[in-house]
């Protein structure tokens, strides 16, 4: 019997035009009423997910920033943050690319001034975004650092962060984003915290994903689903393949499985 269900957001629930199906809130609400712990496991910021699911946020699971924050039923179970020194090194590496860096803090998101041409993208992922001039203007701790590539060459630039591999994980979360987290952190580790907290095992969990930052998530559950548009490596490890994100396949699968 499944007792926990989580899904990735971008590329899995979210459509290619960045539309979030409105029905996801009512479906999650119905699952919660059935006694199933459910929610989101994403590279997005905690504040972004709380804003999207504000009606049910305090009843659901939020694994945000690729596992840097784990939240359930109104309580933060764990946070993992960077040191400022490592964050500065990541920023220096990013300067060697055409990427735009964003910092997901415990309080809000931050981007450096001068990135006006990509602010509409940044604001979509960081609803409480603050533009700053330097690190000295930030009084916060960093959960995740993301680099946006407006020319969609994220995969070509990921090797830039190889010199920092002892301290960080850098993984593609789409054609135009690289997510950077503290070494060893991933969505799967977030699921394991919840499994221990709730006293449930791997076989009692279900997850949906599409990209490389979902691999550990899908490996940590008994019923793993990849959408049709998923990265081939994700499809290879998933137990089930369903339709594409643009077809609202996660929602349709949940409605079918639970007669919603």
UniProtKB/TrEMBL annotation:
<dbReference type="InterPro" id="IPR036412">
    <property type="entry name" value="HAD-like_sf"/>
</dbReference>
<dbReference type="InterPro" id="IPR006379">
    <property type="entry name" value="HAD-SF_hydro_IIB"/>
</dbReference>
<dbReference type="Pfam" id="PF08282">
    <property type="entry name" value="Hydrolase_3"/>
</dbReference>
<dbReference type="InterPro" id="IPR023214">
    <property type="entry name" value="HAD_sf"/>
</dbReference>
<protein>
    <submittedName>
        <fullName>Cof subfamily protein (Haloacid dehalogenase superfamily)</fullName>
    </submittedName>
</protein>
<dbReference type="InterPro" id="IPR000150">
    <property type="entry name" value="Cof"/>
</dbReference>
């Amino acid at each position: 019997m499944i007792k926990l269900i989580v899904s990735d957001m971008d590329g899995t629930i979210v459509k290619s035009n960045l539309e979030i199906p409105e029905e996801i809130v009512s479906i999650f609400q119905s699952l919660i009423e059935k006694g199933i712990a459910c929610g989101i496991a994403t590279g997005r910021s905690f504040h972004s997910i709380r804003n999207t699911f504000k009606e049910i946020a305090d009843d659901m699971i939020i694994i945000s920033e690729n596992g840097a924050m784990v939240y359930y039923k109104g309580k933060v179970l764990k946070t993992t943050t960077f040191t400022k020194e490592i964050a500065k090194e990541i920023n220096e590496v990013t300067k060697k690319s055409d990427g735009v860096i964003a910092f997901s803090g415990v309080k809000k998101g931050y981007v450096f001034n001068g990135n006006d041409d990509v602010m509409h993208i940044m604001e979509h992922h960081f609803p409480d975004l603050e533009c700053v001039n330097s690190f000295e203007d930030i009084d916060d701790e960093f959960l995740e650092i993301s680099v946006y590539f407006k020319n969609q060459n994220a995969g070509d630039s990921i090797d830039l962060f190889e010199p920092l591999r002892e301290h960080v994980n850098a993984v593609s979360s789409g054609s135009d984003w690289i997510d950077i987290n503290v070494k060893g952190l991933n969505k799967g580790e977030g699921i394991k915290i919840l499994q221990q907290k709730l006293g449930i095992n791997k076989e009692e969990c279900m997850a949906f994903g599409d990209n490389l930052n979902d691999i550990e998530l899908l490996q940590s559950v008994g019923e793993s689903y990849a959408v049709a548009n998923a990265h081939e490596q994700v499809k290879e490890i998933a137990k089930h393949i369903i339709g594409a994100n643009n077809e609202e396949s996660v929602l349709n699968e949940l409605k079918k499985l639970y007669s919603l």
